[in-house]
Amino acid sequence: MRPRDWIPWRPGRPGRFELGTRVIAHRGAAAYAPENTLAGLCVAYLLRARWVEFDVKLSRDGIPVLFHDEKLERTTSGRGELRDHDLAQLLTLDAGSWLHEAYSGEGVPTMEAAVRLALTLGLETNIEIKPSPGREAETAEAVIELLDRIWPKERPAPLISSFYPKVLEVVRDRAPVLPRAFLSFTVPANWAEIMVELDCVALHLKETSLDEDTLAAFREQQVPVVAFTVNDPERARWLVERGVRAIVTDRPDRIAEAVGELQYRRSNPTNLPWIFTWCGPKMRVS
Ligand code: G3P
Ligand code: MG
Fold this sequence. Notes:
There is one protein chain. The protein is an alpha/beta fold. 33% of the residues lie in helices and 15% in strands. The chain has 10 helices and 9 strands. The protein has helices spanning 38-46, 87-90, 111-121, 136-150, 165-174, 191-197, 212-220, 233-241, 252-258, 272-283; strands spanning 23-25, 51-58, 64-66, 124-129, 159-162, 180-184, 202-206, 225-228, 246-249. Strands 1-2-4-5-6-7-8-9 form an 8-stranded parallel beta barrel, surrounded by 6 helices. β6 (180-184), α6 (191-197) and β7 form a beta-alpha-beta unit. Bound molecules: SN-glycerol-3-phosphate and magnesium ion.
């Protein structure tokens, strides 16, 4: 893994971490393809996204997989808790049909498959470690071991984010080369302490926590703020005009246009699933 050129934020000093874009495609490209699937990565690539975010949890037998919820019902054909299923069981699930018939048969991917595909497509990755309760350290360790094993020496390190300080602590101690971002739904009173303690390069905040005054205070402290999840172009523009570094969005094409990044391809949401059925399988051959 090639170390990225990064310096953590310190009070009043911005540190350094260049995304090279203001847009991070969320859970793949969740408005257009089933979240946290290989199809999602392919569709993000089709839209010319540069960065993708996805969520990582552990199967019962300790294998990192892409998944958001604790339960299987919303996004798969399965039932019950993800953590009660071994990888072999998860691999039998349909994680695509719920969104669109064109994605039927799309599976729950291992993180290994997702990282290999992202590397093949040239996508930069924001890996959100989202442990099931009680599995914080174990999940972080499994992600680090996997990255140690498969991440190519010449490729810059991925960005690791988490809502869990314990996760970021394990990453800091075991894999300090990996840049880290702290995630939060609200602005915690001790955000600065957490960022300093964990050597974070950015603070990723739910967009509803960001108002005029809060953003002014972050500008004053030179904090690199990333807002999630913003699908409204007007709101994205408003946030970027007030210093937000990047927007995590389900609609990377529309948000890119709103913030002036025209390398993104504008999609037709109706056609995109069918385009994927043609392009997706070809992209995965590498
Ligand atoms: O990384 C930003 C965002 O993904 C955090 O929220 O619930 O979509 O994982 P969530
Ligand atoms: Mg996430």
